[in-house]
Specification:
The chain has 854 residues and is of the alpha+beta class. It has 26 helices and 32 strands. Among the domains are: 161 residues, PAS domain (Beta-Lactamase); 98 residues, Beta-Lactamase, CATH 3.30.450.20; 88 residues, no CATH class; 133 residues, Reverse transcriptase/Diguanylate cyclase domain (Alpha-Beta Plaits, 2-Layer Sandwich), CATH 3.30.70.270. The longest helix is centred in the first third of the chain and has 72 residues. Pfam families: EAL, GGDEF, MCP-like_PDC_1.
Amino acid sequence: MIRLPTLTLRTAVMLPFTLILLLTVGVIAIAQHNSYERMLSEVSNKLLSSYTKNISNDLNLFLGDPFKTNQTLADSIQRHRLYQPPTLTVLEGYLYDAISSIYISQEQINTIAFASEDKYLVGYRKEKDHQYSLLLKDQRTAKDLYIFDGNSYHHPTSHKIKNYNPLERPWYAPFANSLQAGWSDVYTNMDENQTLTISAASPVMQHNRLIGVTVTDINLNHINDFLANDARSTTGTTYILDDKGLLVATSENQKILSSAFKRLHPSNSTSPLIAASGQYIQNHQLNRLNRSTGFSFSYKDARYFGRITPYKDEYNLNWSIVVTTAETDLLGQLPQQQMMGLIAALILGGGALLIGLSVLGQVTRPITEIAEASKKLTESHWEIPVRETVSLKETQLLINSIKSMSHRLQQSFNSLRKHVLFDSLTGLLSQQGLVENTSKLRVGSEAGLVLIGLKSFRNINDSLGHINGDQLLVQIATRFQQVVPSNIQLSRVGRDEFALFSQHITTTEQIEQLAKHALEMFHRPFMIDGIDVMLRARAGTVSGPLPENGINEWIRNASLALSEAKQHEYPLYCHYQARMMTASIEQTRLTAELKHAIDNHEFEVYYQPIIDLHRNLICGAEALVRWNSPSRGLVPPIKFIPLAEDSGMIIEIGHQILYQACQQTYQQIQAGDWPHDFSLHVNLSVCQLLQAGFIEQLEVVLEKTQLPPANLTLEVTESRLVSQPLLTTHVLNQIQALGIHIAIDDFGTGYSSLAYLTQLPFNSLKIDRSFVNQMMATDNYSAVVAAIITMAKNFQADTVAEGVETAEQEAKLKALGCRYAQGFYYAKPQPLSEWSTEMVNKPTNNHQLAEYQQ
């Protein structure tokens, strides 16, 4: 063993001190440069992304309004039959009002017109000084298109196009064939101006036959002005490309046509900056990547940053937005400041070296004392890396102590790291372990992820116990390892969720096949403590190029797909789509608005009458909740009721509706508008039914509103009662003891047994509308309805048929012995302010009911 020479402490410290100082200055310089480049990249990406997003949003409004205008014109022509050939004077007046008055604020619109299958055309073109020119081809102009120097046929003609056939124009033929509204390709007008134009086109139908197409033109010069206006807040350059890579518009208002009147590629633009960026895009084919991509290029010894972003809409518009900006515009004087900082660091480093050498003798004295004290550090949890390079008498004890401490800390660190990267229960990778394993993959690498979640695992834990539940998870992990190929990374990312990641399975079909294969293992039972346990599982899948945010973003997306898969019985898996994130964001926003609506009492009661079929009288009404949102308008119940039930807010909503309905019913009875035996039906969520203190809340509502219990009927959906049968039966008995009636809603659609039905307290059964709708089509449904009516009579309960829409259905229900009915045949749900009090007190007949429904 070779022994290193023993040096004095002064010599041993002086040498590394000098080297470390020089190394530090060098590292600072390199780190500063790398930090500058990294910051420059991040700043350019964020700035250009933000600017592109603003342009995209503004462009949505800029193009969206003319498109909606075009669709409105088409709808009006179709609805009011404005096209009356061979003379188009009626349509001529309507289009003139549209461009000169109704849509005058939409300055980007250049022309509004309508062309027919008869090869007629009428429209108006904006001129300077708010003047308009009539474009006309009908029986008055024979086969030619006349452009008049004014807004009527009696003005002089400014231009004429012989043998004009609108059916051959690019804004007519594609949309007449597809019968779908959309944007045309960029084209040149045939008028005297021959401007470049895009058009919004909408087919117009009459009696399921195409009669023509409405067209709304936007001059590309307007888009140039739009981009120039948006570019005022930045020094960069902005332009738009179409799907062929040709220029559509630029913020510099440069020409986009060549001398041969053909549109230019950006690389051929007269703007040097646009040409340079366009050449880079063309060389690297960035416009074909179909995703937002950042890039940088050099021009005149200066560096520029750019970003190309796809811009698409649902009406076949397929453009790309390109923005560029100079490096100097991003960071200003920072490069010069960086150099000054580096020089200052060198000066300070040199000064520190001189001062350090002078005080070194003073520094070495306490090191011996530190060596003695370092023994105490071996019990601490500090991580102190030590590398023995020379042998020093004074530091030997210190080094040995630090080594001992480092070794112990390393063991603790390894144990902790294993706990973080691997699931302690199953031995699979944890979510953090999966993230770390995939962190080195290049962004954009093709891969696939399957997220498998168990259904009702909490119920299994409650029934088998948490220890057995953990053993079940271990068996699931073991079975996964047996059936899943070895090149797929397995991980447990949640309590009852497992992830399968593969770099070799990249297409949607392949990843769905992997999900299907993995789910097949749940077809066989698991044996836990001598008990066969069958599990149900669902899967969410995602595949394609890895995003910038890595696997965590995929896990989130797959979780959204898994949530959607759990909402349906089939299929067992669901592939992630962008709409799921949009829906999730919308659900979050709607949840917040729903909470705000509860606090502000935005819910109101609509009433749908219930008809006594024996007496032809309205004997009651069902109270239905409606949400009149200040921002959304009238929100359909199907959109917010499921969300309210999932979030638990249905309890407060139900309480507000119950109180409001009882109060209004009592007031109507006291005013003599409703009879004293009027029956109010209010829907009751099972969440409300099972909440603690519900009976006390119900008593308080009746006490405050003074509504007699006999006037109130609470409706509970049959399928929801079976979740906790003993508890629900107990609470229903308490409700009935108060004198309140109970109705079983949507009867016949649930899965409750007749044995369970015999235990339920109820006063009436509501026959689901699905039976009533099919009752006239087949005797099978009539037999079911008759059986329900007979069964209700045997239980000494009434029946209420829902969804009655025709006189034939009413007659059939009467013949079968049904006592009560409700539906659109009688009336739609209406607020109390629109309720007809006459119908409550007078016998109804079909004529009166029809008037009420209207």
